[in-house]
Design a protein that fits this description.
Layout (H helix, E strand, L loop, with lengths): L9 E12 L5 E24 L4 E12 L14 E4 L2 E10 L6 E11 L1
Antiparallel strand pairs: 1-2, 1-4, 2-3, 3-6, 4-5, 5-6
Length: 114
């Protein structure tokens, strides 16, 4: 029995944070696109936390992408993120999806201000 096929039907931009001097003695964080990957995106559990000023909706995601070789700039890793239009998925952890290492599972979180 073979495993079900993975449908990579969502186009995500892989981004990495870079820090640069802000001209006033501090640093500014910018996000730089490393490439575009096709992915399968599956929502997990969600929760909401709030205060008097703002409510944040927090949803976990399981994002599967084709594996790139170790050390490749197109291989996702923790502390990077995926962007899909205005949506941001922060990568928390990455693991291999299968023994052959053809696909990677990126455990990610999306936070949305409500």
């Amino acid at each position: 029995m073979s495993a079900p096929a993975i449908r990579l039907n969502r186009k995500l931009v892989l981004e990495e944070a870079r820090r640069a001097p802000d001209g006033a003695g501090g640093l500014i964080e910018t996000w730089v696109a490393l490439g575009t990957l096709w992915a399968s995106v599956q929502a997990g559990a969600g929760r909401e936390r709030g205060s008097q000023l703002v409510t944040v909706s927090n949803v976990s995601y399981r994002i599967v992408v084709r594996a790139e070789p170790e050390g490749s700039s197109g291989r996702p890793k923790p502390d990077q993120r995926f962007r899909e239009g205005g949506r941001i998925y922060r990568i928390l952890a990455v693991s291999e999806h299968d023994q052959a290492g053809h696909f990677l599972v990126c455990h990610a979180r999306e936070e949305v201000l409500a």
